[in-house]
TrEMBL record:
NCBIfam families: rplV_bact. PROSITE patterns: RIBOSOMAL_L22 (PS00464). Gene3D superfamilies: Ribosomal protein L22/L17. It comes from Evtepia gabavorous. This is Large ribosomal subunit protein uL22. It comes from the Bacteria. GO terms for cellular component: cytosolic large ribosomal subunit. Keywords: Ribonucleoprotein, Ribosomal protein, RNA-binding, rRNA-binding. One of its GO terms (biological process) is translation. InterPro entries: Ribosomal_uL22, Ribosomal_uL22_bac/chlpt-type, Ribosomal_uL22_bac/org-type, Ribosomal_uL22_CS, Ribosomal_uL22_sf.
């Protein structure tokens, strides 16, 4: 049985989220929590919140044992890009792309 949690429209680039997601993939719940608490990356905070949500879903909705949980899958896909304009010299305008992410985190029980 797998319990999932989703974070949609996160205002952080998927490329930055993937760096932190790779650190916790396959780790136990306690170990992943420890990694996220000590990693000084912007994506650590939303991923920690998502991990707690997935663990709560597993415990309450699927009656799983929180001691046996591990991160079975975690991935970030690009969401919509918010486009902004930065004024430049001689009347030009450069585009600024503010990227968003959709993050999926799943936890499962180890046998």
């Amino acid at each position: 049985m797998v319990a999932k949690a989703y974070a949609k429209y996160l205002r952080i680039s998927p490329r930055k989220v993937k760096i932190v997601a790779d650190l916790i993939r396959g780790k136990s719940l306690a170990q992943a929590t420890g990694i996220l608490l000590t990693t000084p990356k912007a994506a650590s905070e939303p991923l920690l919140k998502l991990l707690k949500s997935a663990a709560a879903n597993a415990e309450n909705n699927h009656k799983m044992d929180p001691e046996k949980l591990y991160v079975s899958e975690v991935f970030a896909t690009p969401g919509p890009i918010i486009k902004r304009i930065m004024p430049r010299a001689q009347g030009r305008a450069y585009r600024i792309n503010k990227r968003t992410s959709h993050v999926t985190l799943a936890v499962a029980e180890k046998e």
